[in-house]
Design goal:
- The chain is mostly helical.
- It contains four helices and no strands.
- It is elongated, with a radius of gyration of 14 Å.
């Protein structure tokens, strides 16, 4: 059960941080990259929450898989945003570090033997 709290807390922290960062994007990027980044970050945590509410292991695993996919999408969007100078180096490095930590945990759940 401890691992579930760690996953939730980390995904929640990431979603909130990204949401705030994306709100600071220039207006011309708010409804394109900013909105997509916010949606993908929220998708990570929302699928973890939904998976936690499912009874079957198959359903839980599928939702963790979707969450992992959203995490990969979010990671790309962060790189894209950095390349267009929408994110500073410090913010980027901090959030990528957290994304990588969550990715390891989700990967471990999906591919443990």
């Amino acid at each position: 059960m401890k691992k579930n709290y760690l996953i939730f807390d980390l995904a929640d922290k990431i979603a909130k941080k990204i949401f705030k960062l994306a709100l600071d994007f220039p207006p011309k990027y708010q409804y394109s990259i900013g909105e997509q980044l916010r949606r993908s970050a929220l998708s990570i945590i929302l699928n973890i929450v939904e998976g936690g509410a499912r009874k079957s292991k198959k359903e839980k695993r599928q939702l963790i898989n979707i969450s992992f996919s959203s995490l990969k999408e979010t990671k790309y969007l962060l790189h894209f945003s950095k390349e267009f100078n929408l994110l500073g180096e410090r913010d980027f490095n901090e959030i990528i570090s957290e994304i990588n930590e969550l990715a390891k945990i989700l990967y471990g759940i999906l591919y443990k033997k």
